[in-house]
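chain and backbone:
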Amino acid sequence: MTLVELLSDYTLQNVAMGAAILGAVGGVLGNFAVLRQQSLVGDALSHATLPGVCLGFLVAGVRDLGAILAGALLSGGLAALAILALTRFTRLKTDAAIGISLSLFFALGVVLLTVIQGRAGAAQAGLETFLFGQAAAILRSDLLIMGGIAAAALAAVALLWKEFKLVAFDPIFARTLGLPVAVLEVALTVMVALAVVVGLQMVGVVLMAAMLIAPPVAARQWTRRLEHMVLLAAAIGIGAGVTGALISALGPGLATGPLIVLAASAAVLVSLLFAPGRGILWEALARGRERRGLRGRQVLATLMQLAREHGDPAYPAEQGMLDTYHGLGTAEVLQRLAARGLVAPAGHMPGEGGHWVLTPTGLAEAERTLAEIGAG
């Protein structure tokens, strides 16, 4: 299949657009869950939508996406309120409240799903696809529903941006300003449920939490500003969604939802490794530079002390003596210092090994180093 044929495929277009919608809304709303240290709330709410999916089907009598997503939003919203109520009115911590809500609602959903599957003619319901998603079944009419839900959630974020930002970073200060923090927290949590509802048909109940967590986590490694983080997370979510859809189309039989999650996870891995200033490799390089810099300052300080003890600023110190002080390997350090013009090789009697002397620049640098050591 050529690229033109691939991009003109009706099913792929639907899947790619649905994945882009999911990536955008999940990337934006997931930021607030991550910043409030409630990443697992998304997992709880995604599992909690299962009974709503079943109830929506029972009410509609058919597999109507609008009714199913409305039921999912209802049960997800109830689970969100249950988590908030348990943490606010009991002594339970957030993790315990999340665990209770997740287990209770998911167990109820499994029971309802079993009941529906046991009914005559229910084999065509296909509700089990909401567990792991079935992106290929998305229609243009489904995209309109998903897009409407996503647009409503993103519009609410735009309207209440300052309030949500303040609650996410400093809820105590927000309360002193008179903001209804409890109401805003409920709104944020319900909107996370909205994001979950958008992704049910794409990635399913089980994997939806990853689309709320992975894009913001990846974006957080590249920026310190929330505005940039939200935009970058949305871009990463869209990129992961479209990438997963394309890979699924190129490989027959590959499930789209898991591939989207794997693409988002790959973005997290790349960000954790290579993000400037915060990536693992970046920090490893910075630590290496710091160690080399520290070793160089130690050698300069030793040369300065030897010069003072001998009353000669140009005292030629033997490299073997420096190795004794600092361990083997000072040759590389001395070469770096010489390249910077801080030390220079000095001639001495034959057979005594290499000798090094401080240059005037190195002497000034060594004096600053010793002054810093004395001040510390």
